[in-house]
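Here comes an entry:

___
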Amino acid sequence: MLSRFFGASKRSFDGLSEQEILALAISSEEDDARIYMAYADGLRDEFPQSAKIFEEMAEEETHHRAILIDLHKKRFGDRIPLIRREHVRGYYERKPDWLVRPLGVEKVRAQAAEMEGQAQRFYQAAAARSQDADTRKLLGELAIAEGGHIATAKGLEAKHTPEEVREEEHAVERRQFILTYIQPGLAGLMDGSVSTLAPIFATAFATQDTWTTFLVGLSASVGAGISMGFTEAAHDDGKISGRGSPVKRGFASGIMTTIGGLGHALPYLIPDFWTATITASIIVFIELWAIAWIQNHWMDTPWSRAIFQVVLGGALVFGAGMLIGNA
């Protein structure tokens, strides 16, 4: 059991025979072909042109696997040893990011480049360590093949995703990011920042007790965050609207709601009332301008409308809290 925990059951790459090295290359090519097809399946609905790239890359991996199998038959016969990358100590691993949905097109492209570069570097390093001429030649050929995959990928990218297609795919990906994270997060930040202004500052001016004000602000912020998070997650499963995972949207909304309220509640941990209130007021000003900037940058809201909706609205709520607290 301890040997499994510390990886002692894995084989050292230096201890593999030439047949086992070839078998390892065959299984690695097969795995990478299936990974590329999984990437293609995950991208096909929203990024069909990029999906074609990974389909053709999978075909390349399958072709190289066939060549390696023919070489194995020629040198060692039909029976290929069962050895995979997880059986070899220090061999590169593949993180199962192809299981995640939705897939980000730029992330997948970067991961594919890393896959090919990782395999190429591994074979080059292994060839440099090998003392056997035939093994060195075999590993060098594998490194060249992996380098050819990188060139093939770049050629396919130029073929299937010219600049206008990539711009379109980037726009689709940006829109999905906005719908899943920015929009619910912004709604939460607005709710947390604005809706808690009145109770926090009303309590502050009514009691002039910083600890009581902090407790009111903390409870209002956490309560609003939980409420907004559950509401966002429950009211839309994202299947028809295309807004993405309800869990992700719920967390984005709930966390940002809580942060929005805590921003001007935390200063009341300062014992001096006026120091805490002035600090909280400055933070409120920063919060409201930050919300206006997010609306302008991510939601394409004109500055004039963003300032009117957020800054003026927040100022009115802030003033209402002060008036009620001094009543």
User: Anything to note?
Assistant: Residues 163-195 form the longest helix (33 residues). The CA atoms of residues 115 and 225 lie 40 Å apart.
